[in-house]
Design brief:
heterodimer; A: 441 residues; two-stranded antiparallel ribbon; 15% strand; B: 235 residues; Pectate Lyase C-like; eleven-stranded mixed beta sheet; 12% helix
């Protein structure tokens, strides 16, 4: 009998085929599922928002003729050398270790071509990455793998990572089969063993300590570099206020759709809040402190298109960050590798085993042969092309709303398609004045 | 008769911390400048003499706050007092000596150099250490050497609970009692090479009244190096 539908067969909404398969897998293997990618469940997202293009009451800007600027400055609060980016889309932190060296190089190449920044990850800074990234943000993570003051001084900005959207409150694990000689040496650990990354920083706990930590980083770098604080979206209003109080120049809020190289599925799908509702919480926190736009807000977690970028900016973000989408742009999940995906039990469009090091595209691997398949120049071009499209799409929508800078987009330009999205994004349900929880029905 | 180097004196009661650290950094940037520094009235300031990157001798007279000598390279920093959290955190090389006691996370994630504490060290001494040598004349608090990767921790007194929890390849030497070992940390045989290593570390630390043979050695059982479901209860 085939697995297709037949009269009289009814699939359970509660125990659907994925649920049944997971129960069977758990019973067989006795270990939770660890995977890459981000949340796969359906969540309220930017798709649930629409722009109100200009008409009689507003007038639009001419596409291709009238300017619509896209530049953004990050780190204006305290740093002597803020980052000047040409587009409001940055590359999120992804580690060398999780990604191959040529993949990291490609991200740097693409970002540099478009005048934006890329970010290191858990595992330190590689020369390839520094060499190909004109603007590089250096992450300070709990593990401090590869952390050293020379790289701190070589960086253009520092990002204190408190958490990430895929696993707020969780540490990390780079499985042993991705620990090559080079990765092991950079992390001061033996080859081939699982490398655990702690969930808390080793030398500070809580917002008061964070303030002192940021003070130390500023002293070490002579107050030159902008200091970002990255949080996974959960209690976003409070986290943002505390990070600002601790002295951050830039806040990075990563919604629960944010990607990961290796995390328990149960963590990815069940911890954190969607990006859509995290943005208004962060903006409210900044506005109440009188620091919206002075402390810049970067938002990540599920950015796929210029529409997503424009909507995030309209809700009050200064920039967005992409991770999963950048990998896809470089070739992740490409149908060109369908036969090889099949061999490892996956398929193009479904592949999420970034943790296991067998990525046929050579992106999420430390296998030299697989990594050699990946052309960093071509990958860099693809990243640049993708960033270009995101930017053009964002400008198109901004012009339609009559904005001469993408930062002039505002919540007033948006309506929501669903009550949930209206409540979370704090914009009216389309065709009404109703913002659930804020205005009377 | 030997010539003495006149130390550059900085009084933190009147000089902003930023000015002090910038002057210390400028020596590395310029490749020249005073090599001997005497800092007075630190009054618990945080981040004193952090980010040094030159062969300087820095003496601090008084107590310091968090992250003194943080990320140190090459320099010798001596604290004639106590130090708060994160002394010599992420040190790469050089020597940091504290004549009093230190608070939590001393030498956290440090990659190299030598940290000497003549008093006691509080919790998490040597947390995630990555190659540093740490010698503590007194005792260390709980969860010391948590997730310690490489390097050596020598404790002349006692160690608190959960010593070496989730340890990797670091070596731990304790002369006194150990309140409890953390997950995957076990006592190991103290062979001649280890006695010699302790002797050499004590000598470098300037501690000459403690016998190297009196120490016991602890390290990783290496049972948690690769995740297996049979060990789930240990994680």
């Amino acid at each position: 009998m085939s697995g297709g539908w037949q009269p009289g067969l009814r699939e359970s909404a509660l125990f659907d085929r994925n649920v049944i398969a997971e129960i069977q897998r758990a019973a067989k293997e006795g270990i939770y599922d660890i995977r890459g990618f981000g949340a796969k469940r359906k969540l309220p997202h930017f798709d649930d928002l629409l722009f109100l293009g200009a008409s009689v009451s507003r007038y639009p800007l001419e596409g291709y003729r009238e300017r619509c600027d896209t530049n953004v400055t990050l780190g204006t609060r305290f740093a002597k050398k803020p980052l000047e980016l040409k587009i409001p889309v940055t590359i999120a932190g992804m580690s060398f270790g999780a990604l191959s060296a040529p993949a990291k190089e490609a991200l740097g190449r693409g970002a540099t071509e478009m005048g934006t920044s890329t970010t290191t990850g858990d595992g330190g800074m590689t020369p390839e990455e520094r060499g190909h990234s004109e603007v590089l943000v250096y992450q300070l993570l709990p593990s401090r793998y590869g952390m050293n003051p020379d790289d701190l001084r070589r960086a253009d900005a520092i990002e204190v990572v408190v958490g990430q959207g895929a696993k707020p409150g969780g540490g990390g694990m780079l499985l042993g089969h991705k620990i090559s000689d080079r990765v092991a040496a950079m992390r001061d650990l033996p080859k081939g063993i699982d490398q655990r990354s702690a969930c808390r920083h080793p030398d500070w706990t809580g917002p008061d300590d964070l303030e002192i930590k940021i003070g130390e980083l500023r002293e070490i770098t002579d107050w030159q570099k902008p200091i970002f604080v990255k949080v996974g979206a959960t209690r976003t209003y409070y986290d943002v206020q505390l990070a600002v109080k601790a002295g951050a120049d830039v806040i990075v809020v990563d919604g629960m759709q944010g990607g990961t190289a290796a995390t328990q599925d149960v963590f990815i799908e069940h911890v954190g809040i969607p990006t859509l509702c995290a943005i208004p919480l962060a903006v409210q926190a900044l506005q109440e402190l009188g620091l919206h736009r002075e402390v810049q807000l970067i938002v990540s977690g599920g950015i796929r298109s210029g529409a997503d970028v424009a909507k995030a900016l309209a809700l009050g973000a200064d920039a967005v960050s992409i991770g999963t989408a950048a990998l896809i742009a470089m070739g992740d999940n490409s149908p060109d590798y369908e036969a090889e995906y099949q061999k490892i039990g996956s398929s193009a469009g479904y592949y999420d085993d970034w943790q296991d090091g067998r990525d046929p595209t050579g992106i999420s691997t430390q296998d030299d042969e697989l990594a050699a398949r990946f052309d960093p120049e071509l990958g860099g071009r693809r990243v640049a092309n993708y960033l270009r499209v995101l930017t053009l799409e964002t400008q198109t929508l901004a012009r339609a709303c009559g904005k001469s800078h993408v930062h002039n987009l505002e919540p007033e330009d948006l309506v929501a398609l669903t009550i949930e999205a209206a409540a979370m994004a704090r914009v009216p349900l389309a065709g009404t004045d109703w913002v659930p929880g804020r205005s009377p029905f | 008769m030997t010539a003495t180097v006149e130390a550059e004196v900085v009084d933190l009661a009147v000089t902003p911390l930023r000015d002090l650290n910038q002057r210390l950094h400028d020596v590395a940037l310029a490749g020249e400048g005073p090599s001997s520094w005497r800092i007075v009235n630190p009054r618990g300031a945080h981040a004193v003499a952090c980010g040094l990157d030159a062969e300087l001798d820095v003496e601090i007279h008084g107590h310091v706050g968090y992250y003194c000598a943080g990320m140190n390279k090459l320099a010798t920093v001596r604290v004639r007092g106590n130090a708060s959290t994160g002394i010599a955190e992420n040190m790469m090389s050089g020597l940091v000596v504290v004549e009093g006691s230190v608070s939590q996370s001393a030498g956290a994630t440090a990659h190299g150099g030598l940290l000497v504490v003549h008093g006691d060290a509080a919790a998490r001494c040597g947390i995630s250490m990555k190659g540093v040598d740490i010698v503590v004349r007194g005792s260390v608090g709980h969860l010391s050497a948590f997730m310690a990767q490489t390097g050596n921790l020598v404790v002349c007194g006692d160690a608190g609970d959960a010593l070496g929890d989730s340890i990797y390849e670091a070596r731990l030497y304790v002369r006194g009692s150990v309140a409890g070992l953390g997950t995957d940390c076990i006592e190991k045989e103290m062979r001649a090479e280890h006695v010699e290593q302790v002797r050499e570390l004590l000598e470098r630390a300037g501690i000459d009244d403690v016998g190297a043979a009196d120490f016991r050695r602890y390290g990783s059982a290496r049972q948690l190096y690769n995740f297996t479901i049979d060990n789930a209860g240990a994680y």
